[in-house]
Design brief:
single chain; mainly alpha; 188 residues
Length: 188
């Protein structure tokens, strides 16, 4: 009987130990999971806040860009209205001028095919070539382009350049704000 009593006591101790182990393990596991859930929630909240800041920054940048584009369009429209008041119909524009103008803005033909005129100087071999001399005369002839055409083009071209510059500035400012936000939140 004493043996059975000792065996029963040892078995009870074993069961209590195993039960205590599993109880401790499950309690620790629950605490660990709760801690992980809190950490994940904190990270999620930080990321949502960071996302909201980036979205606000992007929306502000888009609004500024739209406002600047509207201002540029208004300015271009006002300039268009003044063209007739500042141009003269009797001012002749030569084909050479038009060719040089096109070359200056990058709207020209490849240079190896072009004769003397708007894009290059005459060489000693050009003087002997009759087609070059004819081309020089052609460059001196009056073109169909007038001052109003040139002003309209400059207004359009200038407007495009200013819009591109505005977009680039907005993009740079946006990137700077995003980087500042990342440094502030530590999400670099």
């Amino acid at each position: 009987m004493t043996k059975n009593l000792i065996f029963a006591a040892l078995f009870s101790c074993f069961l209590c130990s195993v039960g205590g182990y599993f109880y401790g393990y499950s309690t620790a596991n629950e605490a660990h999971e709760a801690q992980q859930s809190k950490a994940i929630a904190a990270v999620e909240q930080t990321l949502r806040k960071h996302y909201q800041q980036q979205l606000t920054t992007a929306n502000e940048s888009v609004a500024q860009l739209r406002q600047q584009k509207a201002t540029l369009a208004k300015t271009a429209n006002e300039l268009e209205k003044r063209i007739a008041h500042v141009s003269r119909p009797d001012c002749s524009i030569t084909r050479g001028f038009v060719g040089l103008y096109n070359r200056a803005i990058g709207a020209d033909l490849p240079t190896d095919d072009l004769p003397t005129g708007a894009d290059r100087e005459a060489s000693s071999t050009d003087a002997a070539d009759p087609s070059i001399a004819a081309s020089a005369e052609l460059n001196a002839t009056v073109s169909d382009v007038n001052q109003q055409d040139i002003l309209r083009h400059v207004i359009d071209y200038g407007g495009r350049c200013q819009q591109i510059e505005t977009q680039l500035i907005q993009l740079i400012e946006y990137e700077e704000k995003v980087n500042e936000s990342r440094r502030a939140t530590g999400t670099d």
